[in-house]
Amino acid sequence: MRDKLLLLLYLFCLLYLSFSSHVYTLLIALVLLLMFLILSPIERKLKLLKHAFLSFFLFSFFISFSYLLFNQKALDYFLMINLRSFDLSLLTFIFLRMVNLYKAFDFSKTLSFLLVMAVSNAITYNRLLKDFKDAIRSRTLQKPKRKTLVAFIKRLSLFFFEKSINTSREVQEAMRSRGFYND
């Protein structure tokens, strides 16, 4: 029951922060999240904060900074969107650390099945990525050159793209055979 209540609280906070457009509200939310993180019994708090900042930085680097390059007058918007992004990232990482997702979604057979499928795919992709990294390390005596790394990343991206397409087809067929689609 605790996990379901935390899921509802998370969804409420997620919606509230998503629709909030005042910088001060987002700053207060950030301070509250940081205070909660410090006072909570969560282990490895700095690692959680690092993950939240990394995801925020990726968003900010690819989306926000490019927007700022084309529209320098929108500094308030830039600050608001980045604060919102960091708040949402931190909220999500705190939520994932505190809640057992399997218990939170056990009220729905369909959501539980989708969660199991998503987690199993993530574990498989993580293992494959580790295997590919080990393979390139074992096949090169020295640090690979930039050209080799670029070619490796291209092949790896193509592999994961094709794998995700094939996996999605298999999952669709498996779900259809179990009656999840009502076409």
What does this entry look like structurally?
With 183 residues, this protein is mostly helical. The chain is 83% helix and 0% strand. The chain has 7 helices and no strands. The chain has helices spanning 2-19, 23-39, 45-70, 75-98, 101-104, 109-139, 146-177. Helix 2 runs parallel beside helix 4 and helix 3 (45-70) packs antiparallel against helix 4. The longest helix is centred in the C-terminal third of the chain and has 32 residues, at 146-177. It is globular and about 50 Å long. The mean pLDDT is 87.
Structural class category = mainly alpha
β-strand number: 0
Helix segment count?
7
Question: Approximately what portion of the residues adopt beta-strand conformation?
Answer: under 5%
Mean pLDDT: 87
- Terminal CA distance reads 34 Å
* Helix content, binned percent: over 70%
Poorly predicted regions are none
Key words describing this protein structure:
0% strand, single chain, 183 residues
Summarize the SSE layout with pairings:
Blueprint: H1 2-19, H2 23-39, H3 45-70, H4 75-98, H5 101-104, H6 109-139, H7 146-177
